[in-house]
TrEMBL record:
It is an enzyme of class 1 (oxidoreductase). Its EC number is 1.13.11.93. Its cofactor is Fe(2+). It comes from Mycolicibacterium neoaurum (Mycobacterium neoaurum). This is 2-oxoadipate dioxygenase/decarboxylase.
Amino acid sequence: MSTVETWQLRAQFAAALSRMYGAEVPAYDTLVEVSAEVNADHLRRHPQDRRLGSLERVTAERHGAIRVGNADEMRQVADLFSAFGMYPVGFYDLRTAVSPVPVVSTAFRPIHADELARNPFRVFTSMLACADTRFFTPDLRTRVETFLGGRRLFSAELLTTARQIADDGGCPADEAQDFVAAAVACFALSREPIDRGWYDELSAVSAVAADIAGVRSTHINHLTPRVLDIDALQRAMTERGITMIEAIQGPPAVDGPEVLLRQTSFRALAEPRRFRAADGAISEGSLRVRFGEVEQRGVALTPRGRSRYDAAMAEVDPAASWHRHFPATDEQMCTEGLAYYHGGDPSRPVVYEDFLPASAAGIFRSNLDGDAHAPDRPDDTQYSQHWMADRIGHHIHDPYELYEKVACT
C-alpha cells in the first residue's frame, strides 16, 4: 500500500478548503481568478520577479485564517495541523494594535525550505484572550469559558488519527481522502441557529469575540491567494465592482526591494445566518464576518531590518521617508544585513513566510462595523509565546531562527 506523505496531505487539504470556501463565498473565486491574471501579466512584464517564487508556486499559494476560543482548542488545532506538516511559528498579540482585537495568535506552516517549496499552505490561528479584564468582566469571562467548555470543534477520532499521521509522516493512500475530508468539514460554516442575545452581548465587546465564542463551531474566516502586484490586484477587483478595503496594509509601495508582507481584502459580505431568540423562535438574518484577503510577499527582514521597518512605519508618511531607513537595492540590503538572502546572494531573496500583527489587526478591523477599544491601562494577563507553547504542548518556532537556516542554503 502506497503512503501519502504529509506534504501531499497538506496540498490536498489546501485545495479542498479552497473549493469549500469558494462555494460558501463566491467572491473568493473571483479573487483567485483575478490574482492568477495579475500574476501572469506581472511576470510577462517583470520576469526577474520569479526570484520571489515561480508562477506555479505563487499561483497555488494560499493562507487561511481561523479563530478558536481557548488554549485547549488551540492545542487540538496544533495536533490536527501537525498531520499536514504545519507547525506553530511566531506569536502575535493583536491586543496591542492601534485597533485592538482581543486575541493572541500563531501561524501554522511548514518550517523547512523543501516543504515550503512543495506546498507553502499556512493558517493564521487566533485565540480569544478572555482573561484580559480590559475586554471581559469576570462574569462574562466565566460565561464564555462555560460556553467554550460545552462545545467540541474536532472529534476525538479525528485528532487520534492526526497524531498518528504526524508520527508516521503520512498515511495509507486509501485513508487519505477520508481524513482530509473530515478535517475540511470541521471548518465549514455551520447552519446551526445562533443565540441572538448571547451573540449580541459578545459583539458589544468585540465582533471578533462574537465570531469566536458566539457560535458552537469554528470556520474559515478567510482564504488568501498570493499576488506579485497587489496594487494592480486592488485596481482590477475594484474595476469588477467588488468593494475593497480602503488601504493596503503593511509597507508602502516604493521603488526598491519589496519587504515583508502587503495585504488587502474585499469587504466582508453579508451572509445569511439563522438566529434563535430568547423565546426559542428561529428567524433569518445575516452576519458580516468573512472576507477575501490577498497578499504580496517580499524579502524577509533580519532583526536589524525589522527595527528599521518599525521606525519607518512610525513616520507620519512612511512612503516619503522610506529611503531614510532602507537602501534602494538588494545588494545594499544584503551588505547592511537588513534582509535574508540564500547564501548571501542578493539575487536570491528569502521570501517572508509569516505575518505582521498590525496588518492582521488592520484587516480584521477594516472588515468590521465596529470593534473593541481597550482601556488605557496595563495588561495583567500572562499571554506570551512561552505561555502559549506550554498550554498547547507544541514548540512555537522563532521565525528569525528559521530564516537564518534557510539563508544558509
